[in-house]
Amino acid sequence: MVHENTFRQLALSFADAEEQPHFEKTSFRVKKKIFATHAAGSHIICVKLSAVDQSVFCAFDKTIIYPVDNKWGKQGWTLADLNKIRKPMLIDLLTTAYNEVRKRAS
With contact defined as beta carbons under 8 Å apart, do 21 and 33 qualify? Predict the structure, then answer.
């Protein structure tokens, strides 16, 4: 289990990461592009992955990490449950999302 404050600190630990509102959620961005979102009080986060990375992470345990259940999921948007994920896996997930978005924003 990872507390939402820990998630926030991890997301902001990346170079040039910024926190900005995104509709009813908080987004975490690099070069103005979103790599993660979180709604306050929720235990579910959303990250942007490549199709290959999404497949790899979701293969671990689909009750912990799973694609968004619509067209956004087919574009790599992936949900993770903070109540179930372990911190090392969350760090890997956020690092992968951050690097994917940073690479595409360059």
Answer: no
